[in-house]
Amino acid sequence: MERAEAGRLERARRCRWAVVGRSAHPDAASAGREAARSALAAHDDARLLIVFASSDHDLRAVADGIAEAAPGVPVVGTTTAGELDAAGPVQGSVQALALGGDGFSFSATAVSAAADPRDAGARAAACVGDVADAPHRVLLLLSDGSNETQPDIVRGAYSVAGAGVPLVGGLAGHRAPDDGGEPELLYGNAVLKGAVVGVAIGSDAPIGVGVRHGWHPVGEPMLVTRVAAGRVLELDGRPAATVYRERLGGDPDVPVTVAATLTHPLGMRRRVGEAHARWVDDDGAEDGSLRGVVPAGALVWLMDSDADGVIDATDAACGEALGALGDDPPLAVVAFDCNARLMILGDDGARDEVARMAAHAGDAALTGWYTFGEIARTRGTAGVHQQTLVVLALA
User: Fold this and answer.
1) What is the DSSP letter of 41?
2) How many CB atoms lie within 10 A of CB 60?
3) Sheet of 136-143, strands arranged across
């Protein structure tokens, strides 16, 4: 019986497939249509399309193009601050990852998160029950909400999915968040705002998740003594901005530039693995607070890194995700990469980073997007990250 079961699984794995289609067509509908057709050209049994669309495109038009090219295929997706595949990083494209064949099972749902983010996370995670029979599972979460709501969404999802199902995903991105545009989500042919999309992925083969950022703590720890919604009010009982500026060696009365904050997030130490990175914005608030999401009572460190450290984290995240597959080769590799990392690395560094991803992925389908925040929970209850790379590997 064991030999027969092993043979069945091997046949199923041989039938599984993953293909990435991409289009850089300037017309949104054409880009969606071309990306979907490219992803589906070699197969007629697609079970899911995961779409990463540049916010340069009207997502409604992208959805119409995809619907024309892939009638009847379930579709989920998000706007991005940039996209990537084996050819490198790009902006202005539409990427479509098609998954199909035997050995996969999927269930997707979309929930409004406007009123109660935690309840929305719980309801989005309920689709995990539809793939309960699969030996390997992961829950993909896509959200377009603020960073302030993400911890509640993840806590809600964890309360339903439990410790046995890893969580991955990210916050919808936007090329120019100050130009009036908004991140959006795609669910079927519907364009959503203020929502969370949950996708349960079941598989007969292993699934791996890697999480790394490359930052390291410097100096003495600080206690987060007072917070408000989306604000860090005090560090060590003093105005947070004053303490942060002093730690960076600057004038305590002069706000820190965004460029400096991008390379110096706050880190919350964990028992195992890297600290959780939290970006803070010194926006010159009159009360001396910093914009950011850090819980009261947390012990935090000023974090530091450089382009080399960020790139090294790419190898570590890919290695962790692929290592979880054991002897199974990867079928698909999906990267959820923070937009802040893209800004730190610059064009040359971003190309180097994606080239390393492609080297790890080998013949596997590689795709990904630049997010406004990342979701990954493989142990413990915390799962919200910033300035971090999350890698999902499907065997």
Assistant:
1) T
2) 15
3) 104-112, 195-203, 136-143, 167-171, 374-377, 384-385
* Per-block mean pLDDT, blocks of 10 residues, the chain (395 long): 50 76 97 98 96 96 98 97 96 97 96 96 98 97 88 95 96 73 92 97 97 93 95 98 96 93 89 84 96 94 88 95 97 96 90 97 97 88 86 98
The answer to whether 99 and 46 are in contact (CB under 8 A) is: yes
Strands (E), 113-237: 136-143, 167-171, 185-187, 190-192, 195-203, 207-212, 216-228, 231-235
Q: In 3D, which of 193, 146, 191 has the Cα closest to residue 51?
A: 191
What DSSP line would sit under 252-291, residue for residue? TTSPPPHHHHHT--EEE--SSSSPEEE--B----TT--EE
How far is it, in rounded angstroms, from Cα 332 to Cα 320? 15
Residue 113 exposure: Cα atoms within 13 Å on the Cβ side: 35
> DSSP 3-state assignment of 378?
coil
Per the CB < 8 A criterion, the answer to whether 107 and 131 are in contact is: yes
Write out pLDDT tens, residues 229-261: 889 999 999 999 999 999 999 999 999 998 899
Contact in structure between 198 and 127 (CB atoms under 8 Å): yes
How many C-beta atoms surround the C-beta of residue 180 within 10 A? Answer: 7
